[in-house]
Amino acid sequence: MSGDTTIGQILKGLKFRESSSYWKEVRGGNGTLPLNIIECAIYLESPDQSKIVRLTQLDAQQIAQQFAIDHYKTFIEKNFQLIYAELIDHGDGGQEYLFIWREFIQSTGTPNIVQISLNPESGKIISYIGIQRDIEVSVLPIVTKDEAIHIAVDCFPEIFVQYESIPAHLSIEYTTPGTQVLIWTVIIEPKMIQPFDINQIEYYHGGIVIIDAQTGRVISIDKWR
Questions:
Q1: What are phi and psi of 92, to 5 degrees?
Q2: Does 110 have pLDDT greater than 60?
Q3: Which DSSP letter does residue 34 get?
Q4: Mean pLDDT, to the nearest integer, of 209-221?
């Protein structure tokens, strides 16, 4: 990090009262209804201030992580893992660092997310989103990873794939509003395509299959063409 500005000095100036837009929604958490908190703060800055990158990604991550610790009450208690960290170039709209943390219980991703973007020149926070939800379903699947992969491959009879190369990830998602479901997300990337009729219009190159991890039901198929 260059200049006289230190990470500590930047963090000292970050308060919600500086936000030009802030809201917090809290529902439940009274023993009868599940806790549902969505918190958002937006700090609008001139795009011209974010065209120069002065912070390294590591410095920016430390600022964002400390902000998350200070504002997301259970950030340290929960097993939050960084799942996305990038410098995003918006062209004339400037640049921003974007960091996303997700809570994991064992190897299962939960709906609890912290997303923070910040100015790569000043280190000031541009936006913050914190989602906190009670977990209403089991994180342990009945359908195994191998079973989920086989179910997904069966959705693509026109391609050939190597089973050992197929990734599958467990997470709790809202497949319908207000309803949590433990799912397998299986990504099919074909290594070899079976011969096909040149006149065939529908021809797929893999895709993403969402599977109910408790029942094996295919929830959705997104095929790449």
A1: -65, -15
A2: yes
A3: -
A4: 97
- Amino acid identity for residue 164 in this structure: E
In a domain, 139, yes or no: no
Contact 128, 71 (CB under 8 A): yes
- The structural domain count of the chain equals 2
Pairwise CA distance, residues 117 & 39, whole Å: 14
Same domain, 98 and 179: no
What's the pLDDT at 109?
A: 96
Given 133, 163, 192, which residue is the final one in a domain?
A: 133
- Is 54 contained in some domain? yes
pTM for the predicted model, two decimal places:
0.76
174 lies in which domain range? Answer: 145-223
Count Cβ atoms below 10 Å from residue 61 Cβ, excluding itself: 17
Q: What is the mean pLDDT of the chain?
A: 79
Owner of token pair 């065939």? 200
CA angle 193, 145, 190 (to 5 degrees): 10
**Average pLDDT for 128-133:** 88
